[in-house]
Amino acid sequence: MSSGLGSKEVKLPMLSNAFQPIEICNSFGTDCNSDEDQALHDVVSSCARCLTSGGVIAVPTDTIYGVAGLAQNSEAINLLYEIKQRNYKNPIAISVARIDDIYRWSKVTVPRQVLEDLLPGPVTVVLERSPELNPALNPHTQLVGIRIPGHKFMQDLAKECGSPVALTSANISGATSCLRVEVCH
């Protein structure tokens, strides 16, 4: 998958035959012309198809590079843990498209205005999970971290999937997070 807009293939460690080299598109911001809008739409659609098929992808966010899979897909959750070499007791956050989505996937105990003041942005709100959220996601806690990254790609991806995206940093657990695409090997 190549958008022709500064994409770069990034190879993370081969931890499983199911995880192959993937491409990160890092040139999408909020100031897009119509060609870039179409390219973003095409990339988002392609990534959403991968996620809804149970795949895991590397993604840019507003803070660091991440690895994502659909939160409602137990196989994708297991693959995220395998890729990260992460202990299953360490929770994975979810990314959603809109504040209204937070109300679907958690029991909100703060005023809506607090969420609107914080999100989108580099903040994870931690709330009690709703029963609708996949029980295989973070089975050792009733809490869930929820983000709305201040990054158009991630917002569009969550919206296109129509489901929360499990999102964690693109590194082996305990290793330094990837802040630049060039170091996500």
Automatic annotation (TrEMBL):
Catalytic activity: L-threonine + hydrogencarbonate + ATP = L-threonylcarbamoyladenylate + diphosphate + H2O
Entry membrane topology: Peripheral membrane protein
Gene Ontology molecular functions: double-stranded RNA binding; L-threonylcarbamoyladenylate synthase; tRNA binding
Gene Ontology terms describing biological process: regulation of translational fidelity
A GO CC term assigned to this protein in UniProt: plasma membrane
InterPro entries: DHBP_synth_RibB-like_a/b_dom, Sua5-like_dom, TC-AMP_synthase_SUA5
Record-annotated YrdC-like domain positions: 37-185
Enzyme class per UniProt: transferase
Keyword terms of this UniProt record: Cell membrane, Cytoplasm, Membrane, Mitochondrion, Transferase, Transit peptide
Pfam entry (one): Sua5_yciO_yrdC
Annotated function: Cytoplasmic and mitochondrial threonylcarbamoyl-AMP synthase required for the formation of a threonylcarbamoyl group on adenosine at position 37 (t(6)A37) in tRNAs that read codons beginning with adenine. Catalyzes the conversion of L-threonine, HCO(3)(-)/CO(2) and ATP to give threonylcarbamoyl-AMP (TC-AMP) as the acyladenylate intermediate, with the release of diphosphate. Participates in t(6)A37 formation in cytoplasmic and mitochondrial tRNAs. May regulate the activity of some transporters.
Name listed for the protein in its UniProt record: Threonylcarbamoyl-AMP synthase
